[in-house]
Amino acid sequence: MAYEVKHLEELTVVGEKRSYDSIEDAQQKSQQFWTGFKQSDQRARLTIEADDQFQGFFGIYFPTDNGVDYMIGVSSARETSEWTSHHIPAGNYLVFEAGRPVSREIQRITNEAYEVIIPASQHDLRNAPEFEYYPFGNVTAADYTAEMWIPVE
């Protein structure tokens, strides 16, 4: 499976978050979160907040003392009272592309990255959020590609 190493400058994201007991719990329930998000007016309201750094939505896993927070967000320099704001620290990431069906491919890629690729590589994991990136566009298009970003040293 091909990947790139990319350096990300510190990024501010705003959006809606949910708290889960574990990363596995978040992975299982994030699809319901996305479905509700897409069916509400939050999608249009959040799109307006996006800046030019990334033109798309993120699904971000923020580890907490009690589990993990999962946020649907956009990159934005504007912090508002309407949305939760978080910072993603600068650093290197392994970036994997995911085709269709996107949600299944993201899960497959994540599992393979952690179980096969990272252990066999010279990359050590870094304590930072991992995230999915969904560029604005038609996710059902045959050529649509999302990305999975995994933090490494």
Task: Offer a concise description of the structure.
The protein has 153 residues and is of the alpha+beta class. It is 29% helix and 39% strand.
The side-by-side strand order for the widest beta sheet comes to 1-6-8-7-3-4-2-5
Give the low-pLDDT segments: none
Mean of pLDDT: 91
Using only C-alpha atoms, the radius of gyration works out to 15 Å
Helices, by number, come to 3
Structure characterization notes:
Residues 1-153 form the AraC effector-binding domain. This is AraC effector-binding domain-containing protein. It comes from Macrococcus carouselicus. InterPro entries: AraC_E-bd, Cass2, Reg_factor_effector_dom_sf, YobU-like_regulator. It holds the Pfam family Cass2. This protein has 153 residues and is of the alpha+beta class. The protein has 3 helices and 8 strands. The protein has an 8-stranded antiparallel sheet with strand order 1-6-8-7-3-4-2-5. Strand 3 and strand 4 form a beta hairpin. The longest helix is centred in the C-terminal third of the chain and has 19 residues, at 102-120. The radius of gyration is 15 Å and the shape is globular. The two termini are 20 Å apart. 29% of the residues are buried.
